[in-house]
Write a structure and sequence with these properties.
The structure is a homodimer. The first copy, chain A, contains 1 helix and 12 strands; from the N terminus they run ββββββββββββα. By secondary structure, chain A is mostly beta strands. The first copy, chain A, has one domain (about 5-10, about 25-135): Jelly Rolls (Sandwich). Chain A is globular and about 55 Å long. At the A-B interface, β3, β4 and β11 of A face β3, β4 and β11 of B.
């Protein structure tokens, strides 16, 4: 789906274990201003349910697994994150829902901006309307 | 120990689970240029064994636990990372060794610089000598 991408980061593995390194503007297309991580989410709980007008993110399941439903207003797609070296890039104006969290799931997110509630779209109809009216501008 | 600090990040917890957010230059004292993470390290293996002349880092065990031996050339200290919201800041010229990794340990590191082998000190005697001779400059 346009404006989303699964990135398989290189694993440096040796007798010391495995390591993935992600450098801003090299391995991912933005500067990392914020890092957050989520754990202890019930399997049946649905997180996310919003889109961003500005923020770009990389989602990585560094422990366990979860699924991400991506929705650009026209098509939907589900991505399962279960490999530690797999990052999911989500760009602007993508509605996302995270679900099916495993017990040990730790989801790490690298974000291109500081937290700013103003650039969240939390109403699905507003999201669809923004897509419809802004399609020649920001998408 | 000077130039090291344990930071207890705020946990935003609700029915959706737990979340820790870390913003550069706000929750930590540097810009995040690189993020790396380590897993699958044998319990008895010793990682690290170096110091940095430039790099500053925050270490977080987002799964499992491990221990970090910190050494400024004069004193040593062991920090156990086992709480997901606990970050260990390690500044410049601190020799560090990571050990006692739990099976499920995932250690996430936020780093202030791109990878640059030139600013690593990998020889312990050289580290001590740099501390001794440079103590009025960079330390």
């Amino acid at each position: 789906m346009k404006n989303t991408q699964v990135i398989n980061f290189h694993i440096k593995g040796d007798e010391r274990g495995s390591l993935v390194a992600i450098e801003q503007l090299k391995d991912i297309p933005f500067e990392i201003k914020r890092v957050y991580y989520i754990w202890g989410t019930e399997k049946e709980f649905l997180r996310g349910k919003h889109a961003h007008t500005e923020l770009e993110q990389i989602l990585i399941c560094v422990s366990g697994s979860c699924k991400i439903r991506l929705d650009n207003g026209k098509e939907k797609q589900i991505v399962e994150l279960k490999d530690k070296n797999q990052g999911l890039f989500i760009g602007q104006m993508i509605w996302r829902e995270m679900f099916d969290f495993s017990d040990n799931c730790v989801l790490v997110v690298l974000a291109s901006e500081y937290y700013d509630e103003k650039e969240y779209i939390r109403d699905y109809n507003e999201f669809l309307e923004t897509i419809r009216t802004g399609i020649n501008d920001s998408i």
